[in-house]
Amino acid sequence: MLPQRRSRKKGRVEIIPMIDVMLFLLVFFIMITLQMITDKGLKLDLPTSSATQVLPHPHFVINLVKDGGVVVKGKKMSLEQLQNFLAGDGDSKRTQVTIAADKMVPFKDFVQVMGACQKAGVTSIGIAAKPT
After folding, report:
1. CB-based contacts of 55: which residues, under 8 Å, 6+ apart?
2. What is the rounded CA–CA span in Å between residue 12 and residue 24?
3. Any residues with CB less than 8 A from the CB of 42 and at least 6 apart, and which?
4. Is residue 30 a contact partner of residue 81, using CB atoms and an 8 Å limit?
5. Are 62 and 120 spatial neighbours (Cβ–Cβ below 8 Å)?
6. Pairing relation of β-strands 75-77 and 70-72?
7. Are 62 and 99 in contact (CB under 8 A)?
8. Reported pTM
9. How far apart are CA 9 and CA 71, in angstroms?
10. Among 13, 76, 79, 90, which is most buried by a count of CB atoms within 10 Å?
11. Distances in whole angstroms, Cα of residue 56 to Cα of each of 11, 22, 96, 126
12. Quick one: pLDDT band at residue 27, thresholds 50, 70, 90?
């Protein structure tokens, strides 16, 4: 009796699992990139200043519009809602906020928004202005 020769199978690269991994990585990077995009805020006529500095990207941009309304992330809020929103962000001492107020907004409204931020525990507050 002659010994039978076994045919050697060649190794193959499976493409389908590799495609699954690539799609997973693509979705992962898209989700991370979307979280890195900051809130651009509204188009406001900001006041000008000769002492403007570029600040790091804040967690939230609080927009004050001409009628005294407060807009954060596209949602209009009252001062109480703003305070609860900022307080519910986690560690409010690390929350960075930039207030962008139209130059026609009364100073009283601006001070009230700053007060709501401070009541929420936010200590890092920036003020948006256009350079001259």
Report:
1. 96, 98, 126
2. 22
3. 63, 65, 71, 100
4. no
5. no
6. antiparallel
7. yes
8. 0.60
9. 66
10. 79
11. 53, 33, 9, 10
12. very high
Task: Report pLDDT for 35.
Answer: 67
Q: List b or e across 3-38, with b for residues whose CB sees 16 or more CB atoms inside 10 angstroms.
A: eeeeeeeeeeeeeeeeeeeeeeeeeeeeeeeeeeee
Phi then psi for 97, rounded to 5 degrees?
-125, 140
Say what the pLDDT of residue 60 is: 83
Encoded tokens for 118: 């401070």
Going from the C-alpha of 7 to that of each of 1, 4, 10, 13, 14, the distances in angstroms are: 18, 9, 9, 19, 21
Mean pLDDT of 79-98: 84
pLDDT at 26: 93
Structure tokens at 114: 């700053």
